[in-house]
Design goal:
Number of helices: 9
Strand content: 25-35%
Radius of gyration: 20 Å
Number of domains: 2
CATH topology of the largest domain: Quinone Oxidoreductase, Chain A, domain 1
């Protein structure tokens, strides 16, 4: 089968993805083999390919937003049949026995594994996946449309839940990339009043088109204090801007793997029971709930489609900020 692998992480200019022929994977007990139709490309894939995230295995097939058809069912798997559509998320598995898992917080499991980092992902014609983390793809979502929802959409949905925002509440979105553009569609479905902050005029125009009630720069105060805010920009100062915009008792959720550091700020900005919390990874429940909701309300991602062989070009486009929404590799 054809696959893109990272053998040696290196800068995007040096083409870190290598197109190779690999043997088709065979399912272990409890696993499914998917014939991949489409796999969206995430900034995390870029970080793995360039070495910004330390390699967990080498070589590795990146890609954690794959949609495909169940081709083979491994021993002991129940509830799946050949021909069903399924998808992958960043979470490839957890131990299921630790306190975090038993409390429904498998995303915090210390033994968790991750797709495209700890085990081969979806930049390939076939992949193996644990059946217990496979996500059913609703019939109303085409493969290319569903793939970008499996990371940015699911993590954005988790951030919304962690923020405590309620239907009709005032929500801030700081940064307006692919994940935020999916989150605003959920928030508007909940009839939230959404304020979007970004330094990109193009992004602010998109936010207005998607129903934002107000827009501005990161340091511009919203028209009214926010009940909650989510920061998507990997910049620590933006977290403080969001914190200053939330009302008493409000929460700022940081939806970023890395920040450049949070600058010192006055305690008054945190006082009155405001809080800052991070969002880390996703759970199976997050994925199931979000994909069902996405199908129900017609959530749409902005998508550009590329052939598998153009993987390095896609990474360069992501690195330079040329991808407006999500890039998807087509494998069929």
């Amino acid at each position: 089968m054809r696959a893109l692998v990272v053998k040696r992480p290196r800068p995007v200019a040096e083409n870190p993805l290598e197109l190779v022929e690999l043997a088709e994977p065979q399912p272990a007990a409890g696993e499914l083999i998917l014939r991949v139709a489409a796999c969206a490309v995430c900034r995390t894939d870029l970080q793995i390919a360039t070495g910004d995230l330390e390699a967990h295995r080498s070589p590795v097939v990146p890609g954690h937003q794959a949609v495909g058809v169940v081709a083979v069912i491994g021993p002991g798997v129940e509830g799946w049949v050949v021909g069903e559509r399924a998808g992958t998320t960043w979470l490839a598995g957890s131990d299921g026995t630790c306190g975090a898992c038993l409390d429904g917080h498998e995303n915090l499991c210390r033994a968790a594994s991750f797709t495209g980092w700890d085990r081969d992902g979806g930049f390939a014609e076939y992949l193996s996946i644990r059946a217990d983390v496979a996500v059913r793809i609703p019939p109303g979502l085409a493969d290319v449309a569903a793939a970008p929802l499996l990371c940015g959409g699911v993590i954005g949905y988790r951030a919304l839940r962690l923020s405590g925002i309620r239907p009709g509440g005032r929500l801030g979105l700081y940064g307006f990339g692919a994940s935020a553009r999916l989150a605003i569609q959920v928030a508007r479905h909940w009839d939230c009043e959404v304020h979007v902050a970004s330094r990109s005029r193009r992004d602010l125009d998109r936010a207005v088109a998607l129903g934002a009630a107000s827009v501005g720069d990161y340091d511009d105060p919203p028209p009214a204090a926010l009940d909650a805010a989510i920061t998507f920009a990997p910049v620590g100062s933006v977290v403080i801007s969001a914190l200053r915009a939330v009302d008493r008792g409000g929460t700022v959720v940081v939806n970023a793997i890395h920040l450049d550091g949070i600058p010192a700020f006055a305690y008054d900005d945190l006082w009155w029971e405001r809080s800052i919390r991070s969002v880390a990874n996703v759970t199976r429940a997050d994925a199931r709930e979000f994909m069902e909701l996405a199908s129900e309300i017609g959530i749409q991602a902005e998508v550009e489609v590329h052939e598998l062989a153009l993987g390095n070009e896609v990474l360069r486009r992501i690195d330079s900020g040329q991808v407006a929404g999500a890039a998807v590799l087509l494998l069929e």
